Protein backbone atom coordinates (compact mmCIF):
# COMPACT_ATOMS: atom_id res chain seq x y z
CA UNK A 1 0.00 0.00 0.00
CA UNK A 2 1.53 3.26 -1.05
CA UNK A 3 2.06 6.08 1.39
CA UNK A 4 -0.21 8.99 0.66
CA UNK A 5 0.73 11.00 3.68
CA UNK A 6 2.14 14.16 2.17
CA UNK A 7 2.05 17.08 4.54
CA UNK A 8 0.60 20.39 3.54
CA UNK A 9 0.06 23.65 5.27
CA UNK A 10 -2.80 26.00 4.67
CA UNK A 11 -1.90 29.57 3.88
CA UNK A 12 -4.32 32.09 5.34
CA UNK A 13 -6.25 32.95 2.17
CA UNK A 14 -7.46 29.37 1.94
CA UNK A 15 -5.07 28.25 -0.79
CA UNK A 16 -2.59 25.52 -0.04
CA UNK A 17 1.05 25.71 -0.92
CA UNK A 18 0.64 23.15 -3.67
CA UNK A 19 -2.06 25.26 -5.30
CA UNK A 20 -5.12 23.42 -4.00
CA UNK A 21 -8.11 25.67 -3.52
CA UNK A 22 -10.91 25.56 -1.02
CA UNK A 23 -13.98 23.80 -2.41
CA UNK A 24 -16.25 23.96 0.62
CA UNK A 25 -16.04 26.24 3.64
CA UNK A 26 -17.97 25.14 6.71
CA UNK A 27 -18.47 28.23 8.88
CA UNK A 28 -19.74 28.09 12.49
CA UNK A 29 -22.23 25.38 11.67
CA UNK A 30 -24.66 24.22 14.33
CA UNK A 31 -27.27 21.60 13.49
CA UNK A 32 -30.18 20.16 15.41
CA UNK A 33 -32.74 17.40 15.07
CA UNK A 34 -35.58 18.85 17.12
CA UNK A 35 -34.06 19.66 20.51
CA UNK A 36 -31.05 17.43 19.98
CA UNK A 37 -27.93 19.30 18.86
CA UNK A 38 -25.89 17.21 16.43
CA UNK A 39 -23.21 19.74 15.37
CA UNK A 40 -21.74 22.54 17.44
CA UNK A 41 -19.85 25.49 15.96
CA UNK A 42 -18.06 23.48 13.28
CA UNK A 43 -15.64 25.46 11.09
CA UNK A 44 -13.20 24.00 8.58
CA UNK A 45 -12.34 23.97 4.88
CA UNK A 46 -12.56 21.13 2.41
CA UNK A 47 -10.05 21.41 -0.43
CA UNK A 48 -10.50 20.60 -4.07
CA UNK A 49 -8.46 17.65 -5.38
CA UNK A 50 -8.04 16.19 -1.93
CA UNK A 51 -9.64 13.48 0.14
CA UNK A 52 -10.94 14.72 3.49
CA UNK A 53 -11.75 12.00 6.03
CA UNK A 54 -14.35 12.52 8.76
CA UNK A 55 -13.66 10.31 11.76
CA UNK A 56 -14.97 9.97 15.30
CA UNK A 57 -17.14 7.78 17.49
CA UNK A 58 -20.69 6.79 16.59
CA UNK A 59 -23.16 9.64 16.95
CA UNK A 60 -20.52 12.42 16.80
CA UNK A 61 -22.20 14.10 13.81
CA UNK A 62 -20.24 12.84 10.78
CA UNK A 63 -23.28 11.90 8.69
CA UNK A 64 -25.09 15.08 9.75
CA UNK A 65 -22.18 17.12 8.46
CA UNK A 66 -21.98 15.15 5.21
CA UNK A 67 -25.70 15.48 4.49
CA UNK A 68 -25.62 19.16 5.44
CA UNK A 69 -23.09 19.80 2.65
CA UNK A 70 -25.54 18.77 -0.08
CA UNK A 71 -28.60 19.95 1.88
CA UNK A 72 -30.05 16.43 1.98
CA UNK A 73 -30.27 16.68 5.79
CA UNK A 74 -33.09 19.17 5.28
CA UNK A 75 -35.36 16.30 4.23
CA UNK A 76 -35.28 15.05 7.86
CA UNK A 77 -38.23 16.53 9.80
CA UNK A 78 -37.02 18.72 12.68
CA UNK A 79 -33.53 19.27 11.22
CA UNK A 80 -32.28 22.84 11.48
CA UNK A 81 -28.92 24.51 10.77
CA UNK A 82 -27.28 27.82 11.65
CA UNK A 83 -23.99 29.12 10.32
CA UNK A 84 -22.97 28.93 6.70
CA UNK A 85 -21.52 26.56 4.13
CA UNK A 86 -19.85 28.00 1.04
CA UNK A 87 -19.33 26.07 -2.18
CA UNK A 88 -16.73 27.76 -4.38
CA UNK A 89 -17.11 30.82 -2.17
CA UNK A 90 -20.89 31.11 -2.52
CA UNK A 91 -23.34 30.23 0.25
CA UNK A 92 -25.31 27.07 -0.49
CA UNK A 93 -28.21 28.77 1.36
CA UNK A 94 -28.37 31.85 -0.88
CA UNK A 95 -31.98 32.41 -2.00
CA UNK A 96 -30.96 32.14 -5.66
CA UNK A 97 -29.44 28.68 -5.22
CA UNK A 98 -31.58 26.10 -6.96
CA UNK A 99 -31.72 23.10 -4.67
CA UNK A 100 -31.84 20.44 -7.40
CA UNK A 101 -28.89 22.02 -9.17
CA UNK A 102 -26.91 22.30 -5.93
CA UNK A 103 -27.51 18.65 -5.03
CA UNK A 104 -26.39 17.58 -8.48
CA UNK A 105 -22.96 19.09 -7.83
CA UNK A 106 -22.47 16.34 -5.24
CA UNK A 107 -22.16 12.63 -5.92
CA UNK A 108 -23.30 10.37 -3.10
CA UNK A 109 -21.90 6.93 -2.32
CA UNK A 110 -23.79 5.04 0.36
CA UNK A 111 -22.62 2.40 2.79
CA UNK A 112 -24.44 -0.42 0.99
CA UNK A 113 -23.88 -0.52 -2.78
CA UNK A 114 -27.27 0.35 -4.27
CA UNK A 115 -27.18 0.00 -8.08
CA UNK A 116 -30.48 0.09 -9.97
CA UNK A 117 -31.77 -3.39 -10.93
CA UNK A 118 -31.42 -2.17 -14.51
CA UNK A 119 -28.68 -2.98 -17.06
CA UNK A 120 -25.19 -1.84 -16.07
CA UNK A 121 -25.22 0.56 -19.05
CA UNK A 122 -28.46 2.14 -17.86
CA UNK A 123 -27.12 2.65 -14.32
CA UNK A 124 -24.65 5.11 -15.82
CA UNK A 125 -26.72 6.46 -18.74
CA UNK A 126 -29.81 7.37 -16.72
CA UNK A 127 -28.50 10.41 -14.83
CA UNK A 128 -26.60 11.70 -17.85
CA UNK A 129 -29.77 11.48 -19.93
CA UNK A 130 -32.24 13.05 -17.50
CA UNK A 131 -29.87 15.88 -16.58
CA UNK A 132 -28.99 16.57 -20.19
CA UNK A 133 -25.27 15.84 -19.68
CA UNK A 134 -25.40 13.74 -22.86
CA UNK A 135 -28.02 15.05 -25.25
CA UNK A 136 -27.38 12.93 -28.33
CA UNK A 137 -28.12 9.25 -27.71
CA UNK A 138 -25.38 8.36 -30.23
CA UNK A 139 -22.84 9.74 -27.78
CA UNK A 140 -24.17 7.71 -24.87
CA UNK A 141 -22.14 4.51 -25.38
CA UNK A 142 -18.90 6.48 -25.39
CA UNK A 143 -19.94 8.42 -22.31
CA UNK A 144 -20.92 5.26 -20.42
CA UNK A 145 -17.54 3.74 -21.30
CA UNK A 146 -15.75 6.86 -20.09
CA UNK A 147 -17.53 6.80 -16.71
CA UNK A 148 -16.95 3.07 -16.27
CA UNK A 149 -13.27 3.53 -17.15
CA UNK A 150 -12.95 6.35 -14.61
CA UNK A 151 -14.46 3.99 -12.02
CA UNK A 152 -11.93 1.24 -12.95
CA UNK A 153 -14.79 -1.08 -13.90
CA UNK A 154 -14.82 -1.05 -17.70
CA UNK A 155 -12.66 -4.12 -18.31
CA UNK A 156 -14.79 -6.20 -15.96
CA UNK A 157 -18.16 -5.23 -17.43
CA UNK A 158 -17.58 -4.27 -21.07
CA UNK A 159 -19.01 -7.59 -22.34
CA UNK A 160 -21.96 -7.69 -19.93
CA UNK A 161 -23.37 -4.17 -20.16
CA UNK A 162 -26.91 -5.57 -20.58
CA UNK A 163 -26.81 -7.50 -17.31
CA UNK A 164 -28.43 -5.92 -14.28
CA UNK A 165 -26.16 -3.86 -12.03
CA UNK A 166 -27.34 -5.99 -9.13
CA UNK A 167 -25.73 -9.10 -10.70
CA UNK A 168 -22.22 -7.81 -9.96
CA UNK A 169 -20.13 -8.56 -6.85
CA UNK A 170 -20.37 -6.12 -3.94
CA UNK A 171 -17.10 -4.41 -4.81
CA UNK A 172 -18.07 -4.13 -8.48
CA UNK A 173 -21.47 -2.76 -7.47
CA UNK A 174 -19.80 -0.07 -5.39
CA UNK A 175 -17.56 0.91 -8.31
CA UNK A 176 -20.67 0.96 -10.53
CA UNK A 177 -22.29 3.33 -8.03
CA UNK A 178 -19.18 5.50 -8.31
CA UNK A 179 -19.46 5.43 -12.14
CA UNK A 180 -23.13 6.40 -11.74
CA UNK A 181 -22.17 9.26 -9.41
CA UNK A 182 -19.58 10.46 -11.96
CA UNK A 183 -22.18 10.44 -14.75
CA UNK A 184 -23.66 13.76 -13.64
CA UNK A 185 -20.25 15.50 -13.52
CA UNK A 186 -20.22 16.32 -9.81
CA UNK A 187 -17.67 18.66 -8.19
CA UNK A 188 -17.64 16.77 -4.91
CA UNK A 189 -18.11 13.11 -4.02
CA UNK A 190 -19.52 12.36 -0.57
CA UNK A 191 -19.01 8.86 0.80
CA UNK A 192 -20.55 7.54 4.00
CA UNK A 193 -18.56 4.42 4.98
CA UNK A 194 -18.36 3.23 1.37
CA UNK A 195 -16.33 0.10 2.12
CA UNK A 196 -17.95 -1.19 5.28
CA UNK A 197 -19.81 -3.92 3.35
CA UNK A 198 -16.79 -4.92 1.24
CA UNK A 199 -14.05 -7.50 1.73
CA UNK A 200 -10.40 -6.36 1.96
CA UNK A 201 -9.70 -6.96 -1.75
CA UNK A 202 -12.73 -5.00 -2.90
CA UNK A 203 -11.94 -2.31 -0.32
CA UNK A 204 -8.42 -1.97 -1.73
CA UNK A 205 -9.76 -1.44 -5.25
CA UNK A 206 -12.20 1.24 -4.06
CA UNK A 207 -9.39 2.95 -2.13
CA UNK A 208 -7.18 2.97 -5.23
CA UNK A 209 -10.05 4.46 -7.16
CA UNK A 210 -10.61 7.17 -4.54
CA UNK A 211 -6.94 8.08 -4.83
CA UNK A 212 -7.23 8.38 -8.62
CA UNK A 213 -10.47 10.37 -8.53
CA UNK A 214 -9.05 13.07 -6.33
CA UNK A 215 -7.05 14.25 -9.35
CA UNK A 216 -10.09 16.27 -10.37
CA UNK A 217 -12.62 16.18 -7.54
CA UNK A 218 -13.02 16.98 -3.88
CA UNK A 219 -13.86 13.82 -1.93
CA UNK A 220 -15.25 13.66 1.60
CA UNK A 221 -15.28 10.22 3.17
CA UNK A 222 -16.64 9.01 6.50
CA UNK A 223 -14.92 5.93 7.77
CA UNK A 224 -14.70 3.98 11.03
CA UNK A 225 -11.64 2.26 9.60
CA UNK A 226 -8.73 4.36 10.83
CA UNK A 227 -6.22 2.61 8.59
CA UNK A 228 -8.45 3.53 5.68
CA UNK A 229 -8.57 7.18 6.72
CA UNK A 230 -4.76 7.16 6.98
CA UNK A 231 -4.36 5.45 3.60
CA UNK A 232 -6.77 7.46 1.46
CA UNK A 233 -7.05 10.95 2.92
CA UNK A 234 -4.80 13.98 2.86
CA UNK A 235 -6.80 15.84 5.52
CA UNK A 236 -8.67 14.47 8.51
CA UNK A 237 -11.39 15.97 10.71
CA UNK A 238 -11.94 14.32 14.11
CA UNK A 239 -15.35 14.88 15.69
CA UNK A 240 -16.58 14.17 19.20
CA UNK A 241 -20.11 14.84 20.50
CA UNK A 242 -20.89 17.20 17.60
CA UNK A 243 -17.73 19.25 17.96
CA UNK A 244 -14.80 19.36 15.57
CA UNK A 245 -11.96 18.56 17.96
CA UNK A 246 -9.06 18.44 15.51
CA UNK A 247 -8.60 19.11 11.82
CA UNK A 248 -5.40 19.01 9.82
CA UNK A 249 -3.05 17.00 7.68
CA UNK A 250 -3.90 13.33 8.06
CA UNK A 251 -0.36 12.50 9.06
CA UNK A 252 -0.45 15.06 11.88
CA UNK A 253 -3.82 13.87 13.15
CA UNK A 254 -2.62 10.28 13.32
CA UNK A 255 0.97 10.78 14.44
CA UNK A 256 0.88 14.04 16.38
CA UNK A 257 -2.64 14.56 17.74
CA UNK A 258 -2.85 17.66 19.89
CA UNK A 259 -5.70 16.57 22.13
CA UNK A 260 -6.09 13.61 24.44
CA UNK A 261 -9.50 12.82 22.94
CA UNK A 262 -8.08 12.55 19.43
CA UNK A 263 -5.02 10.67 20.63
CA UNK A 264 -7.20 8.12 22.43
CA UNK A 265 -9.37 7.71 19.35
CA UNK A 266 -6.61 7.26 16.77
CA UNK A 267 -4.72 4.87 19.00
CA UNK A 268 -7.84 2.77 19.51
CA UNK A 269 -8.07 3.55 23.20
CA UNK A 270 -11.42 5.30 22.95
CA UNK A 271 -13.80 3.88 25.54
N1 LIG B 1 -32.91 11.61 11.83
C1 LIG B 1 -32.51 11.91 13.07
N2 LIG B 1 -33.39 12.26 14.01
C2 LIG B 1 -32.99 12.58 15.27
N3 LIG B 1 -31.72 12.55 15.67
C3 LIG B 1 -30.78 12.20 14.78
C4 LIG B 1 -31.14 11.86 13.43
N4 LIG B 1 -29.99 11.54 12.77
C5 LIG B 1 -28.99 11.68 13.66
N5 LIG B 1 -29.47 12.08 14.87
C6 LIG B 1 -28.67 12.33 16.07
O1 LIG B 1 -27.68 13.30 15.77
C7 LIG B 1 -26.42 12.92 16.33
C8 LIG B 1 -25.40 12.80 15.22
O2 LIG B 1 -25.76 11.71 14.40
P1 LIG B 1 -24.97 11.31 13.08
O3 LIG B 1 -25.78 10.28 12.38
O4 LIG B 1 -24.62 12.53 12.35
O5 LIG B 1 -23.64 10.65 13.70
P2 LIG B 1 -22.49 9.80 13.01
O6 LIG B 1 -21.20 10.37 13.47
O7 LIG B 1 -22.73 9.71 11.55
O8 LIG B 1 -22.67 8.36 13.69
P3 LIG B 1 -22.38 6.89 13.10
O9 LIG B 1 -20.89 6.74 13.11
O10 LIG B 1 -23.06 5.99 14.05
O11 LIG B 1 -22.97 6.82 11.71
C9 LIG B 1 -26.66 11.64 17.09
O12 LIG B 1 -26.87 11.97 18.44
C10 LIG B 1 -27.92 11.09 16.49
O13 LIG B 1 -28.65 10.35 17.42
MG1 LIG C 1 -23.12 8.13 10.25
Textual characterization of the structure:
One of its GO terms (cellular component) is membrane. Its EC number is 3.6.3.27. GO terms for molecular function: ATP binding; ATP hydrolysis activity; phosphate transmembrane transporter activity. The protein has 271 residues and is α/β, with parallel strands linked by helices. The protein has a domain at 16-100 and 232-271: P-loop containing nucleotide triphosphate hydrolases (Rossmann fold). It is 32% helix and 25% strand. The chain is built from 10 helices and 10 strands. It has helices at residues 62-69, 99-104, 120-130, 140-150, 154-157, 170-182, 200-213, 226-232, 250-255, 260-266, and strands at 22-33, 36-47, 51-55, 79-87, 90-91, 106-109, 188-192, 218-222, 235-240, 243-249. The strands form 2 sheets. A 6-stranded mixed β-sheet has the order 6-7-8-3-9-10, with helices on both faces. A 4-stranded antiparallel β-sheet has the order 2-1-4-5, covered by helices on one side. Helix 7 links the parallel strand 7 and strand 8 (218-222). Helix 3 (120-130) crosses helix 4 (140-150) and helix 6 (170-182) packs parallel to helix 7. The longest helix has 14 residues, at 200-213. The relative contact order is 0.18. The model is unreliable at 1-13 (pLDDT under 50). Adenosine-5'-triphosphate is lined by residues 33, 36, 38, 58-64, 76.
Amino acid sequence: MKSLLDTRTVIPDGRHHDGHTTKLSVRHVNAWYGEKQALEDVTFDICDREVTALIGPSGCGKSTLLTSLNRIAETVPGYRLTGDILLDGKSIFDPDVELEHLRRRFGWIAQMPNPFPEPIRENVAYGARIHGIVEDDNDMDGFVEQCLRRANLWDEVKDILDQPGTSLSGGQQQRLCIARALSTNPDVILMDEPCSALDPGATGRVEELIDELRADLAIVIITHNLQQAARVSQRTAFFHLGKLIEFGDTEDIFLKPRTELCNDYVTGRYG
